[in-house]
Amino acid sequence: MSFLAPAGFAALAIGIPILLLYMLRLRRREVLISSTFLWRQVVQDTEANTPWQRLRRNLLLFLQLLILLLLVLALARPFITVPTVSAGKIALLIDASGSMTANDIDGGTRFAAAIEQGRQIVSNMNPQDVISLIRVADIAEPLTAYTADKNELRRALDGMTVAYGAADWDTALTLAAAGASGAENFSIVMISDGGLGDVAGLSANIPGPIYVPVGESANNVGITALAARALAGGAPQLFAQVTNYGAEPADISLVIRLDDVLRLSRSGRVPPRSQLPIPFDEPIDEPFETLSATLTFDNDVDDFLALDNQAWTVRNDAKTRRVYYVSAGDNLFLEQALRSLPGVQTFRGNAANRRLPGDPFDLYVFDNWLPNDLPAGDMLIVNPPNSTPLFTVGAPLDSTNDITLADESPITAFVDLDEMSLLEYRAVEAGWAQTLARSQAGAVLLAGEVNAQQIALLPFDLRDSNLPLLIAWPVLMANLLDWFSPQDIVSLPDGLRVGDVLAISPPLLADSIRITTPDGSIHELPATGDRVAFTDTGLLGLYRLEILQAGDVTSAQSFAINLFGAGESDIRPRAETDLQLGGGTLAADADEQLGTQEFWMWLALAALLLLAIEWVVYHRRLGLPTLLRSTPRPFRFQWRRLQSS
């Protein structure tokens, strides 16, 4: 055992005045009397001693000296050297993702075990060590700067909470690696169950992280898919999937509630490490808005993660899209493509009438024709004959077969234009549009949003190209129609996970957006712009979104946040040899380093306890009432003295 502050032993000199106080006594004159009956006050102090009397055995003196010794030892800060994970400048990363709520560890969860591991690392740190604590959840955040203050680190550990989604290890490792600058002895310590996902590599000058594993079992059964979808005009069809990540088969029951009312249930056996699709053959005829599924088990099924035992979704009906189509000629390629797409109802207009009908449509398709006044809705314009306030049509361009995709977009997904060729096309300029396909001379496909409208332009006649003969043509039309589809307020009703950013498309006249989270919290967002981002998606369950205009709710929609994904439901603890980061294995058996374990706190507590004992002994000797003795002792003592005299 060694001492961090040996100078504290100088406080032992306080024992000298304590001893002197016990050796000094008052000298009194001795007088013989016949009786002590009239001298009760004198009897209380009958001994007359010399100033420097020999010390006698005294319990109070022993206790006071022992208290002094304990306090001096606490000031000297005794310690022993113990093995520690790392030393020097340490970035301590603690996994706070959903899988850390698994309760496969005796007495608590993996997260509680990780916090305890962190406390041990803090307790064993050397005086010259500094630690920065980083919480790794759906958002990675540093809780402390690099500090040697153990109390600050312990407070940060005690206040850390677990999240319900996947951990952002990329950001966490980037934050940790920033601490390596200027450090002679730097290390990254990761306390996790190994669910790192696809993390990026570290710089070559950053040492491999030290991995401290937590977790014991892989047994978990969870809901990994839930959807309720319907074709246009049809009843919703329900589908669910349950996955068993453990090594034993699991007998499960899946209970379905429609708008919180019990309606359906299914039972089955899920083989080990397998998925069990649970189709519901009968469509759901009764009306509902939200649907929830709850997973229950037999008593002998080990399921250590409760987060994925419940899932939610909202009703998602396919909409019939009304398309108004006008062509200056008989363009069978375009008309047949529109009529072949599912959920599309096409109305053909008269090219001789330059006025549009009064009823609005979901999409306007104009081929080599434009009305007197452009509509306020979405438009697909093929071979525009003249310029408009939204775009300018230039001179014809020469033929080309060198057409490439200019930018990634949902419109050009799975579209291959390598074999496309054009006899003639027009130069079109539109500052609001994005060029999706181009030739050397100009754009051949443009799309964008302007004035809350979605507009796509094909500046050529389809009959002057081979595009309708390519497989890319039906794919392009399907992508365009999906892009033009009337959007809900929330475009992903059942595809969101914890931590995802929710894109909201508020109506033009909306003032604000109100979102109620599953715990009842209310968030107010201003409805500014075409898109509003909502980021507080850290809870599992159903959210309620309302559009407000002049204080009134004009529309509302629900959406669900689920845990779906093997990244958190697969709670199998990963060994350090299975984890790769930046092309190398994470370090687990690092060179053993030494830390310190101090005992000053225990010594101070022992001194405090002895001080309380000394107080009780002192007051009992005075004969004063205490909690342990309510009858004054001096009276009984004096009575015995009187009897003996």
What's the number of helices?
A: 11
Q: Write out the CATH superfamily name of the largest domain.
A: Class I glutamine amidotransferase (GATase) domain
Uncertain spans, ≥5 residues at pLDDT below 50? 630-645
Q: Give the N-to-C terminal Cα separation.
A: 57 Å
The number of distinct structural domains comes to 4
Radius of gyration: 40 Å
Please give the largest β-sheet: 8 strands, mixed
Residues in helices, as a percent range: 10-25%
Short structural summary:
By secondary structure, the chain is α/β, with parallel strands linked by helices.
Description:
This protein folds into four domains: 2-80 and 600-644, no CATH class; 86-216 and 573-589, von Willebrand factor, type A domain (Rossmann fold), CATH 3.40.50; 321-484, Rossmann fold; 496-562, Sandwich (Immunoglobulin-like). The chain starts with a strand and ends with a helix. The protein is elongated and about 145 Å long. Residues 630-645 have low confidence and may be disordered. The chain has eleven helices and 35 strands. Strands 17-16-18-19-25-24-23-21 form an eight-stranded mixed sheet, covered by helices on one side. Strands 5-4-3-6-7 form a five-stranded mixed sheet, sandwiched between helices. With 645 residues, the chain is an alpha/beta fold.
Features:
645 residues; alpha/beta; Rossmann fold; 4 domains; 35 strands; 19% helix; 31% strand; elongated
Strand and helix map with partners:
Elements (H helix, E strand, L loop, with lengths): L1 E2 L11 H9 L16 H4 L15 H18 L1 E7 L4 E7 L14 H14 L6 E7 L3 E3 L7 H9 L10 H9 L8 E7 L17 E4 L7 E10 L6 E8 L5 E9 L2 E10 L3 E6 L10 E8 L12 E5 L1 E2 L3 E7 L4 H9 L3 E5 L14 E5 L10 E5 L9 E6 L6 E2 L19 E5 L3 E6 L4 E8 L2 E6 L13 H13 L11 E2 L4 E3 L7 E5 L5 E5 L5 E3 L6 E9 L2 E11 L3 H4 L10 E2 L2 E2 L7 E6 L1 H23 L10 H12 L1
Parallel strand pairs: 3-4, 3-6, 6-7, 8-15, 16-17, 16-18, 18-19, 19-25, 26-32
Antiparallel strand pairs: 1-2, 2-35, 4-5, 8-9, 9-12, 10-11, 10-13, 13-14, 20-22, 21-23, 23-24, 24-25, 27-30, 28-29, 28-31, 31-32, 33-34
